[in-house]
Design goal:
CATH class of the largest domain: Mainly Alpha
Strand order of the largest sheet: 1-2-3
Order of helices and strands: EEHEHEHHEEHHHHHH
Structural class: mainly alpha
CATH topology of the largest domain: Four Helix Bundle (Hemerythrin (Met), subunit A)
Shape: globular
Number of helices: 10
CATH architecture of the largest domain: Up-down Bundle
Number of strands: 6
Helix content: 55-70%
Radius of gyration: 25 Å
Distance between the termini: 69 Å
Strand content: 5-15%
Length: 281
């Protein structure tokens, strides 16, 4: 007896039929996290219709190229934390998040674990999730961390010689400007600033350093969004960025390192002053 397959779409609408003691259901899954629920419905429906025996074998094939719902919840919630949609210290429930991001609880739970690793959220057993606060001490440690890794990136980029394509991109990003008191313009600058620092890290050609720079950018973006939420748009570091690029182009490792150090700690002084010693503790 040949194997026949009953195909289901994601809404569990049967488009084929089969009469066989062992039924093989293949489901084209667009949302990984819905597999268990959809399979359960398919199984129950098949048994009610008398075409699916108890020993049916179920399997799923995930359509290539589709992000899992868990990944999409992670990215959406991460962006909302960074941009201040969810405020520092805010309590979030798994149920509410599942509704807000249109998912089941499993993707929310998985996203929460990753966001805790990013230091954007705390998972408190039997209580829920809490958006992390940023204290003055956190700010100090963050900038010290940035100096350690990004000064090394600038030095290595200048010492190793730049990839022409990446260097051109870096130069363009360095000249990014925004309109005074224009939130949308400043939001574009925030993205460009992150791209500048990540592109420079790529020029160092050291994956560990790149990962280190990338890991701290979400916190830096949080700080920048928090600043514009209180009406502070800061001073654009166009000249500082351009001087760093110039040192890399001229293959001056020591100068590139010093310029990056001055840039980072100049930024730190402004942020600490803005916090006024009263950042979230």
């Amino acid at each position: 007896m040949s194997i026949k397959i009953l195909w289901y779409t994601t809404d569990i609408s049967a488009i084929g039929d089969v009469q066989r003691p062992r039924l093989l259901i293949a489901w084209l899954a667009l949302e990984e996290d819905l597999m268990a629920k959809q399979f359960s419905r398919a199984r129950d429906r098949g048994r009610r219709q008398g075409v699916l025996p108890d020993d049916a074998l179920l399997f799923a094939r995930v359509t290539p190229g589709n992000k899992s719902l868990s990944e999409r919840v992670y990215q959406a919630l991460k962006r909302d934390i960074i941009t201040g949609v969810h405020r520092p210290g805010e309590a979030l429930s798994e149920k509410d998040l599942a509704e807000q991001y249109r998912s089941s609880r499993t993707p929310v739970r998985e996203a929460a674990v990753r966001l805790q690793q990013d230091n954007l959220l705390r998972v408190v057993p039997n209580r829920g999730y809490f958006i992390t606060k940023i204290s003055v001490q956190d700010l100090t440690e963050m900038y010290e961390y940035r100096a350690a890794v990004e000064c090394a990136c600038a030095e290595l980029a200048a010492a190793k010689g730049a990839n022409p394509a990446l260097l051109k991109q870096l130069e363009e990003l360095a000249h990014t400007e925004n309109k005074a008191e224009d939130r949308e313009s400043y939001v574009r600058f925030i993205s460009a600033d992150t791209a500048f620092h990540l592109t420079l890290a790529r020029l160092a050609r050291n994956q560990l350093l790149f990962n280190a720079v990338q890991s701290v950018r979400c916190q830096m973006e949080r700080i920048m969004y928090a600043a514009i939420d209180i009406g502070y748009y800061g001073e654009l570091p166009v000249d500082e960025h351009c001087h760093i690029v110039e040192a890399i182009v001229k293959r001056e490792p020591a100068r590139a390192r010093q310029l990056m150090y001055d840039h980072i700690f100049g930024s730190k002084a402004k942020v600490i002053d803005l916090a006024g010693g009263g950042a979230h503790s």
